[in-house]
Design a protein that fits this description.
The protein is built from 14 helices and twelve strands. The longest helix is centred in the middle third of the chain and has 31 residues. The chain folds into two domains: 231 residues, 3-Layer(aba) Sandwich (Rossmann fold); 161 residues, Rossmann fold (3-Layer(aba) Sandwich).
Length: 409
């Protein structure tokens, strides 16, 4: 079967699909990944055909904007994405696997190509009474309020995609159809969506419709012979397990201030540290010592199990990777879905209370790090979640769904 996976966004929005694609390829399928151009090397390393999308992953990430500014950036990102998705689909496919970011436009492609599609989401964005919207909803509103807020969020997403969808349908030769109508039709059809996160972190909401499953994470592809750089190995062996600090695609332009704050916090907490530079450009150059190391992009699967705790922005992928490693998190959420994942980590006991990025100080971060490291309960809860996650086979569950489609079941 020729499968086209469509994903857009920053590293955490794309990397998990390399592992999913590699698994499907091992099952005998021809797999292509459509993603922003920056991820071409990652796709090649995973053995996947690559189809570049013009959308810049920094279009909606990297800063700390919220409200109208964030919505404006999201709309511009979606406008660029539409034409790119059509071009990526032009070589053809027998099945489309659509991420959260690409599904609203991917539905139209599936219709035009007359091929089936599956949702492969990293976030539980469908309305539920069990928690408020993943993006934009922080405080619980009660079952009715949570579900109403989720439905409102869906309408906002529809509006953001309206113009791009109209142009896309016209370019594909499809009759006019409003974005809201297209989404509602998908819902009536019980369009299948497989969610790539663990029930140890977010159990499947009981009020979700048929067709919505939580199957467990699919992880970034990692070659069997991949290993950490010698410099990192030497640092890890030179002392007690360090605390990892990384903000992924967040805090771009705030690197100098953030670096000083983080190093100060680590020193106050009395722990060694590994700083991942990320988009913020974190660096330990001002540390003047051997207790903090700056690194670039490294596989979380290899590094996190050897740390004392993980300080992170609470993106979906990093949150899951820390939990999978069985180590405590110190969530510092910035925007979008990050407060949701931060709250979930705290709720399952694998993290202390989140420290919002807007309120971050060296003193607060040091206190949270010490709590995460000293309170054995956080590690015990993380280890329990890790055992649960080890029993989940997210990529295999997607492969089963693909096989069922191929067999006409």
């Amino acid at each position: 079967m020729k499968i086209l996976i469509m994903a857009a966004g920053s590293h955490g929005d794309v990397a998990p699909y390399t592992g999913l694609g590699a698994h499907l390829r091992a099952e005998g399928h021809e797999v292509a990944l459509a993603a922003p151009e920056a991820f071409g090397g990652m796709a090649a390393d995973s053995g996947l055909e690559f189809r570049a999308l013009p959308a810049d992953p920094r279009a909606t990430g990297g800063g700390t904007e919220a409200g109208p500014k964030l919505l404006s950036k999201a709309a511009a990102f979606i406008d660029r994405l539409g034409d790119g998705l059509a071009n990526a689909a032009a070589p053809g496919a027998d099945l489309l696997l659509l991420a959260t970011t690409t599904a609203p436009l991917g539905w139209h492609l599936s219709e035009a190509m007359n091929v089936p599609s599956l949702g492969v989401y990293l976030q539980p964005v469908l309305p539920t009474g069990e928690f408020p919207p993943v993006v934009g909803g922080v405080r619980p509103l009660g079952r009715w309020g949570n579900r109403a807020a989720g439905a409102l969020g869906q309408r906002v997403v529809d509006r953001l995609h309206t113009d791009a969808a109209r142009r896309l349908r016209a370019g594909l030769g499809l009759p006019p159809l409003g974005q809201g109508a297209r989404r509602r039709a998908r819902e009536r059809e019980n369009w299948p969506v497989l969610h790539g996160f663990s029930q140890a972190l977010v159990p499947r909401p009981a009020d979700w419709r048929s067709g919505l499953q939580v199957v467990g994470n699919w992880w970034p592809h990692l070659a069997p012979d991949h290993h950490l750089p010698d410099e990192v190995e030497d640092f890890l062996r030179a002392g007690p397990p360090p605390v990892f600090v990384g903000f992924g695609s967040m805090a771009a332009g705030d690197g100098e201030r953030l670096s000083g704050l983080v190093v100060d916090a680590l020193r106050r907490a009395g722990v060694r540290g590994v700083l991942q530079s990320g988009w913020a450009g974190l660096t330990a150059e001002t540390a003047n010592g051997s207790d903090v190391l700056t690194v670039g992009e490294l596989p979380h699967a290899l590094l996190f199990p050897r740390t004392a705790a993980v300080v992170h922005h609470a993106g979906a992928g990093t949150s899951a990777a820390a939990l999978r490693a069985g180590v405590p998190s110190v969530p510092v959420p910035v925007m979008a879905d990050q407060p949701f994942w931060a709250a979930r980590l705290a709720a399952v006991g694998a993290a202390p209370r989140p420290v919002p990025y807007a309120d971050l100080t060296a003193e607060r971060l040091a206190a949270a790090v010490r709590l995460a490291v000293d309170d054995r309960t956080h590690r015990t809860r993380a280890e329990a979640a890790a055992r649960h996650m080890a029993c989940e086979q997210g990529a295999a569950r997607v492969a089963e769904a693909v096989a069922a489609l191929a067999d006409g079941r």
